Predict the structure.
Amino acid sequence: MANVELPLELADEIRRRVFDEPGLIKVTQVLRRGGNTFRISLRPVEIRGERKYQGEMTDEGKTKVKNFDIDGAREGLEEMIGQTGTRELHLVTASGDLHIRVTKKGKVLQSRSGKLAREVDDAPAHDRVKRLPLNAFHAQPLLQAIGISDADGRIKASMRGKYDQVNAFLRVIDEVLPESVGPEPLTIVDCGCGRAYLTLAVYVYLTIAKGRDVRVCGIDRRHDVITVARHLADDLDCADRVTFIEGDIDTAELPFEKVDIVLSLNACDTATDAALARGIEWKATHLLSVPCCQHELHKSLKNSGPMAGVLRHGILRERLADLLTDTFRAQILRIMGYRVQVVEFVSSDATARNILLRAESALKRGMWAAVSEYLELRDFWRVTPWLETRLGEPFSRLLTICEETKED
Ligand SMILES: C[S@@+](CC[C@H](N)C(=O)[O-])C[C@H]1O[C@@H](n2cnc3c(N)ncnc32)[C@H](O)[C@@H]1O
């Protein structure tokens, strides 16, 4: 890794814009060294009528906040500017943003954009809750690399749906993110990651905007998309923390032992079940899954009995099969000890596939109330959901034990 200092004019510009010009909003630096991420930021605050600077330092997931007078703040800024190695510095002032990235190969890349940062930081407090995660930091290098925005930083019309989906997904991740951080990095697996829009956005967002120490692994069985994803991770200088496996979700061997969060966004048909099943087997705390096309149950619904009138019509059959597939998934997750919510995570204008299963490991496994509801539904429809088949013997054994004891 190259130890590169900032060019003198750039360092001077930062000093001037932080201390000599009005309108400082925040300066943040994210530094990667020896496998750790270190984040430091400085912003002006007023304390009992006096101007101070609030410093926030996050090291290996632990955050400390301290207020400085101007001398202390100058020292802090000098320390930031004096760092070498791979890093990103983001300066936000009323006159615009300056974003500097020093790559692993020692290149100093800079970009300037007034609009994004001002939209974010001048927003009145009540608007902030509506802020898009990908507006909460300088996301242009990411959005351009993954092809969501063009060279001028505009979201491409053809990628607007993906941009909305990824933002919505990041919001959900924000909601489930544990407040306290342990010594271990947060580990996330993206099943059926495709070209890694979500995989890379999750990593960059959690690292830069949230200061978290994160490892992400994307799995996809397609060689072409994994090749693209690996190149993108290289370009974004995060290939050591965002890894990709070319293979099947069911058999992939992860580069880490414990898994905190499993994601799947539009993994086709039974790939969603594979993601949920692996999440259960990895004992992941959170499973966040947006299902896509669902064919499995569609084929096995029988056109007889009181529902024959619904199943006769192709579109009703398809929608019913979609609803039932997700219902069975939610029921099985409950049986496996997950508290489940089924939500519309993004507007239906963005995509018709806008249902998200959000599950947190928080309940006892094998509660009779969950099992009996599941068995009743399954017997009514006379089907075996794919997720049950996939979970195999351990799941059947659990059902049998629950039927025998009928206890919560
Ligand atoms: C519709 S794409 C979604 C890609 C990405 N999550 C996104 O939202 O942009 C579904 C991806 O899942 C992958 N996939 C489907 N079944 C899979 C399986 N069993 N194992 C690994 N990847 C699978 C496909 O190759 C495809 O790239």
Remarks:
- The radius of gyration is 24 Å.
- The chain has two domains: 8-123, 157-405.
- Residues 192-194, 197-198, 219-222, 225, 248-249, 265-268, 271, 274, 292 surround S-adenosylmethionine (CB under 6 Å).
- The CA atoms of residues 5 and 30 lie 15 Å apart.
